[in-house]
Write a structure and sequence with these properties.
Helix 1 packs across helix 2, helix 6 runs parallel beside helix 11 and helix 8 runs parallel beside helix 9. It is built from twelve helices and 14 strands. The radius of gyration is 21 Å and the shape is elongated. It has 353 residues and is of the alpha/beta class. It has two domains: 150 residues, Rossmann fold, CATH 3.40.50.1260; 175 residues, Rossmann fold. The strands form three sheets. The protein has a six-stranded parallel beta sheet. Strands 9-8-7-12-13-14 form a six-stranded parallel beta sheet, sandwiched between helices. Strands 10-11 form a two-stranded antiparallel ribbon. The mean pLDDT is 95. The structure holds 3-phosphoglyceric acid (3PG).
Length: 353
């Protein structure tokens, strides 16, 4: 394969603030390193944000610099959006990062013409981007029609570890769910409820559960989604917060008694999943619940998986990312996978879910 070109899809969807510390950049750097000596050229595809056409703040220029720094490899950024110029720019041996895939016409629509163009740049497609696996785009799904396509090591690790959570042989199995919206997490709660021994709810889902139990959460988020949990909350397996930290009429974090209650369950667990902060963790005053949960899971010897953008942010901040069995790079993709939905990018690679 020495004289071949690999097209590598990785997840580079990070904000300016988190570029250097991001788990996604670190894992993408590993993917690049693993292909480096194997192919003459590696052409990296990634996206940032949800731009409508070219939007300078979402350019990949800074990402190329960060990837080079973290991987130690020379990475050439290709700023051009013109097909002929891109072909010319990547003609020499080397590692290249193309501009934000979502700047290009045809990416989001999974247009065959754009997928064919991407495929024409290489000999093999390696998809190592789990976090977009729930999207059907030209650079992760369409391209597989025109090139031999394989899953990268990160993608395989995501599937292997997340699959364990859907069989969970080791009990007690404790699931901690937070974040803003119940609707985002409902599929996971429903799917895992028969398997799990306890589902601990904080954040928006916690507030919705309280409302469903008839408790007035006033102006807190989650209030309007209470109906979604009305039936599920009858299960003894689901624990809602028992006290809170508030500001005005809003619940912004779980309280000390809830922390104790949740920690006790976490300590007993042999399998753990955590997705979504317990409160408004961006504000120091309301970060305690999330931090305590992170620390309890980090101390546990259970098989533990943490995922979701905000949750991984918390564990990066407290520096405990290496204390979990697996940290998923996926946000929506992880939730869809754990809900039992078929993910288009995995289907395209003929991976059995
Ligand atoms: C993510 O951040 O979860 C992925 O990069 C997918 O992003 P999207 O929700 O904008 O498709």
């Amino acid at each position: 394969m020495k004289n071949k070109t690999a097209i590598l899809r990785v997840n580079l969807d990070v904000t300016d603030r988190e570029i250097k510390s991001s788990l996604r950049i670190k894992t993408a750097a590993k993917s690049i390193t693993s292909l480096k000596g194997k192919y003459e050229r590696v052409i990296i595809l990634g996206h940032r944000g949800r731009p409508k056409g070219y939007e300078k703040p979402l350019s990949m220029k800074k990402i190329a610099e960060a990837l080079a720094e973290v991987s130690g490899a020379k990475i050439v950024f290709v700023p051009s959006m013109e097909k002929e110029k891109i072909k010319e720019a990547v003609s020499e041996k080397g590692i290249y990062l193309l501009e934000n895939m979502r700047f290009f016409e045809g990416e989001a629509e999974n247009a065959p013409q754009f997928a064919k163009f991407l495929a024409s740049l290489g000999d093999i497609f390696v998809n190592d981007d789990f976090a977009t696996a729930h999207r059907k785009s030209a650079s992760n799904v369409g391209i597989t029609k025109y090139l031999p396509s394989v899953a990268g090591e990160l993608l395989k690790a995501e599937i292997k570890n997340l699959s364990k959570l859907m069989k969970a042989t080791k009990h007690p199995y404790v699931v901690v769910i937070g974040g803003a919206k119940v609707s985002d997490k409902l599929g996971v709660i429903k799917k895992l409820l028969p398997l799990a021994d306890k589902i601990l709810l904080g954040g928006g889902p916690g507030n919705a559960a309280l409302t469903a139990q008839g408790i007035d959460v006033k102006d807190s988020i989650g209030l309007e989604e209470a109906d979604l949990l009305k039936t599920l909350i009858k299960s003894k397996k689901i624990l809602a917060p028992i006290d809170f930290r508030v500001q005005g009429d809003r619940i912004l974090d779980i309280g000390p008694n809830t922390e104790e209650l949740f920690i006790e369950e976490i300590r007993k667990a042999k399998t753990l999943l955590w997705a979504g902060p317990m409160g408004l963790f961006e504000k120091a005053k309301f970060a305690k619940g999330s931090r305590i949960i992170a620390e309890a899971i980090a101390e546990s010897n259970a098989f533990s998986v943490v995922g979701g953008g905000e949750t991984t942010d918390i564990i990066q901040k407290i520096g405990s990312a290496n204390k979990f069995s697996f940290v998923s790079t996926g946000g929506g993709a992880m939730l869809d996978f754990l809900s039992g939905k078929k993910l288009p990018a995995l289907q395209a690679l003929k991976i059995n879910q």
